[in-house]
């Protein structure tokens, strides 16, 4: 049987050593996720660059396995079978990151958090709590809006502006405290600044009295951020430290090592 690059899915890909059909199936799932979880075949073809016959065949297999669903409007959506995979992967991510979160907590004395962006929301996937009696606690698995949290803004800053705006949506940004930034223009100024200086601040924007410093985890396969959070006065005191114990350099160093572990 003759084969072409568009229709030869079963053999190893010579450039990468991978199986081309598997690579293309995940490419379609990623394209579907980037489209907000729902798209037509023509939209998938345009965004993935794959030929329509290949997309037809792969989508049919993904639908049969429950990883994709077809709705009544002949659009395709991410399927429910992905939920278990995502939940398990999130738990494992938190487990892999725990030694680094513990190191950050020991270095700062404050609660260390790890979060990813999922479906337009921040999802906390790991945490090591401070040993202090007054400490911050966020349940692992909790979902929050990205514009009012340190990790959320660190995640948004990793995206192209158009994609970040799509994540925020068209509705007005919700105010949680008098300090929440609800002006998109001001928020994007903060994101630009965070890229320049390497960290972002949540100054009582999610909860009164709580300050959070967050940095991106470079090299992670999906936008990932870690943070330290605690009472405002204690976090400001950490920020004022200099030398080997300076907060942001310590966080960036730990984030870089974690990123190398998580890199595909």
Automatic annotation (TrEMBL):
Residues 81-264 form the IclR-ED domain. The lineage of its organism: Bacteria, Bacillati, Actinomycetota, Actinomycetes, Kitasatosporales. It comes from the Bacteria. Residues 19-80 form the HTH iclR-type domain. Keywords: DNA-binding, Transcription, Transcription regulation. InterPro entries: GAF-like_dom_sf, HTH_MetabolicPath_Reg, Tscrpt_reg_IclR_C, Tscrpt_reg_IclR_N, WH-like_DNA-bd_sf, WH_DNA-bd_sf. SMART domains: HTH_ICLR. It comes from Kitasatospora cystarginea. This is Allantoin degradation transcriptional regulator AllR. SUPFAM superfamilies: GAF domain-like (SSF55781), Winged helix' DNA-binding domain (SSF46785). Transmembrane segments: none annotated.
């Amino acid at each position: 049987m003759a084969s072409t690059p568009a229709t030869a899915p079963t053999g190893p890909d010579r450039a990468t050593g991978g199986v081309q059909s598997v690579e293309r199936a995940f490419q379609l799932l990623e394209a579907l996720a980037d489209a907000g979880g729902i798209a037509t075949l023509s939209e998938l073809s345009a965004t993935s660059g794959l030929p329509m016959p290949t997309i037809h065949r792969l989508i049919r297999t993904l639908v049969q396995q429950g990883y994709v669903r077809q709705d009544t409007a002949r659009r395709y959506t991410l399927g429910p079978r992905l939920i278990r995979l995502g939940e398990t992967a999130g738990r494992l991510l938190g487990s892999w990151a725990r030694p680094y979160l513990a190191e950050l907590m020991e270095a700062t004395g404050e609660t260390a958090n790890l979060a990813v962006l999922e479906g337009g929301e921040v999802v906390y996937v790991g945490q090591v709590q401070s040993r202090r009696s007054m400490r911050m606690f966020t349940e692992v698995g909790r979902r929050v809006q990205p514009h009012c949290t340190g990790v959320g803004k660190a995640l948004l800053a990793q995206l192209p502006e158009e994609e970040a705006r799509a994540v925020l949506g068209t509705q007005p940004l919700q105010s949680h405290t008098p300090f929440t930034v609800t002006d998109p223009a001001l928020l994007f100024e903060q994101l630009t600044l965070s890229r320049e200086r390497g960290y972002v601040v949540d100054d009582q924007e999610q909860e009164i009295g709580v300050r959070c410093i967050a940095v991106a985890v470079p090299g992670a396969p999906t936008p990932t951020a870690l943070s330290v959070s605690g009472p405002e006065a204690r976090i400001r005191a950490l920020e004022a430290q200099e030398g080997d114990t300076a907060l942001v350099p310590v966080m960036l160093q730990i984030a870089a090592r974690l990123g190398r572990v998580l890199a595909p």
